[in-house]
Amino acid sequence: MKTLRESAQAIVIGGGPAGAASAWALASQGIDVVLVDKARFPRDKPCAEYLSPQGSRILSAMGVLETVEHAGAAQLSGMRVRSPDGGIIHGEFAAQHGFTGFRDRGLALRRRRLDPILLDAARRAGTSVREGVALDSLIMVGETVVGVRLRDDGELRELRAPLVIGADGLRSSVARKLALTARLSWPRRVAFVAHYRDVCGMTGYGEMHVERDGYVGLADVGHGETNVAIVVPRALAKEASGDSAAFMTRWLARHAQLAPRFACATRVSDVQVTGPFASHARRGYAPGAALVGDAADFFDPFTGEGIYAALRGGELLGGFAREAIRARSPREALAALKAYDDARIAEFRQKWMVERAIGAAVSSPLLMNHAARVLGARRDLADLLIGVTGDFVPAAAVLRPSFLLHFLDPRRWVASHHKAA
Ligand SMILES: Cc1cc2nc3c(=O)[nH]c(=O)nc-3n(C[C@H](O)[C@H](O)[C@H](O)COP(=O)(O)OP(=O)(O)OC[C@H]3O[C@@H](n4cnc5c(N)ncnc54)[C@H](O)[C@@H]3O)c2cc1C
Which strands sit side by side in the sheet containing 2-7, from one edge to the other? Predict the structure, then answer.
């Protein structure tokens, strides 16, 4: 067993948005941070690659907003959602509801371009970044994490620190080893993601098309490329039987509004497949460890907020982690980590409620058609909801009875039932 270094003050496992933001937040406060990722960057990550307008606030704080824009990120003015019966919900980020985001556009950029920029911000703040180094196991003293064993070029190395941060994504080894993972039984969906050129009719809006056999997101991600992310129930994904490219082609061809738009399109990346992805940590911390980003929770990609949640989680963790590292007793350290978890839940709880409500609507053609009928007729309500998914309108604005009652209006329900029949 070799040592990578004797010790650090914090070890971050994972160099995606959550790990980069956590490391940046800690290193910026003068904390000695080592970040490891099993991948070498640039690497792909299955994602629809859209970043909400409020995400730009954190990019700006990290000093990389201009770099991301100069890297060719597409700018998205809002979202268009098509329901199974063809109803359209159109929402703009710049709207009259009185809430304004840090930017009035979302950004979209391939993760192989975005993630190295974020990682560089962590590096510049003083983080020591080690690529191609994977977590092997946690070093425990009793119930407390005191360090990690890492696999580096086939060798096992030890590194100790008062805090280990699990930012290792959906199937987090850190969460699993600490028995913190609670995979959700619903929804069980699988995603197929690829990049295409020459998709017809792309505009400056992100598109979601909800169908009876799943949904697809289309977004310009700059450089003439369109991100195509098809998400289907797990049972249907079995149809792919090893040929995910053919599955994507068949799925797109069987939807009349999509097929002609792909007639001249060329796929320019491999198809990445991931899922099922809904999971939720029972707790976002343990003695000596904290979880952030997808390692802590992820529900469904429909609302496209994972990158913001990962960045915001990292930013939030920064202050509490510093207290945990500098604590005078294990009890004080644990209290700081619990305070982080409480703050995370307080920040995201209502958003999770909205995500789950949208997840339920997406699973039911009847509900989705109904939602499109209500929101299609009321741009103000659609803008408000799109603003929530853009992370600058508080989720409470769409959880109010005055908003929800629009969906219960019996006349609209009768209209939806008639159309469905
Ligand atoms: C189909 C799909 C579409 C999505 N679309 C969007 C979208 O449009 N917008 C949006 O905001 N979000 C979207 N998301 C969610 C978003 O991709 C995630 O929420 C986001 O990537 C979370 O960031 P993270 O840093 O927590 O994890 P990740 O980005 O997954 O990074 C985790 C890192 O940990 C590393 N790692 C893993 N295990 C180890 C180990 N044992 N040792 C060392 N390193 C390890 C990995 O190599 C990886 O680099 C989508 C997700 C899916 C599945």
Answer: 2-7, 155-160, 144-152, 133-141
